Description:
The complex is a heterodimer of chains A (402) and B (251). Chain A contains 17 helices and 6 strands. Chain A is mostly helical and 402 residues long.
Amino acid sequence: MLGLNKKDTSLFLIVVGMTMFAPFILNPFPETSQLAQFNAGYPDLMQRFVIFGIFAIGFNLLFGLTGYLSFGHAAFLGVGSYAGVWMMKLLTMDVIPAIFMSMVVAGLFSILVGYVSLRRSGIYFSILTLAFAQMSFSLAYSVLTPITNGETGLQLALDDPRILGVSQVDGSIPPASIFGIAMRDSWDLTLGGWSFTFNAGYYLCAVIMILAFYVSVRIFRSPFGLMLKAVKSNQQRMNYTGLNSKPYTFAAFVISGMYAGLAGGLMVAMDPLAGAERMQWTASGEVVLMTILGGAGTLFGPVLGAGFIKYFENIFSKINDNILYQWFSGLPESVADALVFVIHPFIGKGWHLTLGIVFMLVVIFLPGGIMEGLRRISAFVKKRFSSSPSSNGAVPSAKAAE
Amino acid sequence: MEILKVEGVNKSFGGLKALNEVNLSIEEGNVHAIIGPNGAGKSTLLNCFVGKLTPDTGSVTFMGKNLIGIKPHEINQAGVSRVFQTPEIFSDLSILDNVIIPTLASNDGSFSFNAWNGVQKRGEILDKAESILEDIGLAEKKDVLAASLSRGDKRRLELAMCLVQDPKLVLLDEPTAGMSRADTNNTIDLLKRIGERGITKIVIEHDMHVVFSLANKVSVLAQGTVIAEGKPEDIKGDPRVQEAYLGGAHI
């Protein structure tokens, strides 16, 4: 279907299903239950899941396929965001030109960064990209203040020209919209104790993520994608096989930069402001974590990794001591005190600690990330419940790597 | 017809003169062995043919095309393939992918942006890749990771990767180094079968058994210079060769 093989089609359909029904899947607990705080089905967080999913899919096209570890990808996301806000300031509040321009500007910027950085490989490449990103971050904060509005961040204003739109509606800034549907429009559905929110902005992001995922599957399976894997596997052999590895890596870098720009543009479409901190090295590091945690070089891993980290960041960080005491209310006070004392460093502001430990465990025991974990579980289940011992465990199959 | 011509090639590394006025002429269709003691400059010479090293002076021409100063991928696209001393393959890809990559390279050129249609849709490429695997005896393992192959099989795979490109000249750098006798004989058989395709080959080799069962011409390199050249039988008896190669002992 859609030019994909059977296995990829089913993966694609799973992704479509998961994103389309996310408001249900992410809200498994009734509103009044103790566990309601683990619900992630609110628009703001769901938007972040898919936007960072796009960012990670793009990063994976570079890092997962060619093995070139860029440590400055947030710069493209930041540049894309600024371009998006400017389109909204100057042109119209419709998000399409903003998203489009984000991709174009990020693409152009990645041509520049890629041209210079790809002269080196390995750690030197990483350092060059990091330097570019930190340079962009500092410039956005200082010299480029007329474009970026410095520390305050670039925002919309009532006196923006908006040539194709209106400057203000009833004394306030018009909302970001697509074909007249505002991004913040939501529709609530209450079923018994559960309540689900369907948000226009989320569905726009979700559709774009599905497209982005589809494009990435096509690239993975194409001759071009195979060449990118060859770059990672053995560049010397590649060159002696009559292939010029440089344009391949360069093209992958630019495509990946445009994915980052797209993510930046969508962020702006959801919330029309852009700040320099989006380009900081921690933001670049985050997408590296997402990709490795989910499984670099796998199709769907990066999306899972992005979801995992964003969930931790938003949900785990909200748990505090009071909530813990509520959970342990059935226990004797001294036991509850002891438990809270032990757990305290790992929750709330300490969520980074938990994430760090999870990350270390994954890298050490599951070098292939969450995807490898899922694969091992499914292999175990198959082995356990199939009557005949399977023979494909003996030979490492290349197909299993994806 | 002369396919590769090497004239007056010199190459020094610091004070060491690795190649000294090397002249060679390789005839089309020949299996030309280059032998010589360790450090004679055999691999250096080979590296000058594929763009890995640039000679200080001298010229290397392949079918009238100058090979000095052009990039490895351009040399390959001109029709020169190389097999390395330690097999250079795409270890973390499947065996089939390993062969598809060179097939695509000779079909689509050194760069092409085919990012949309799947590899699986390129029937002609797949057929060619699978038929070469059939030829070389790896067809059954085509979905296996290349890293899991034995050393002998890796060598065969690398040969398949060269042959699938229909090269005019194949350079083999010690194709049987570190192999058991049985593997060595298998490789000789394989190379002989390839010989039937009429591809010119240059073989660098230590193992005299391999040289004498494959080559129809031999050049002897010692201290960066060609000291003897001729048919294998003539070389065998040449006293200069025995002197340089084995310090006077009889081969």
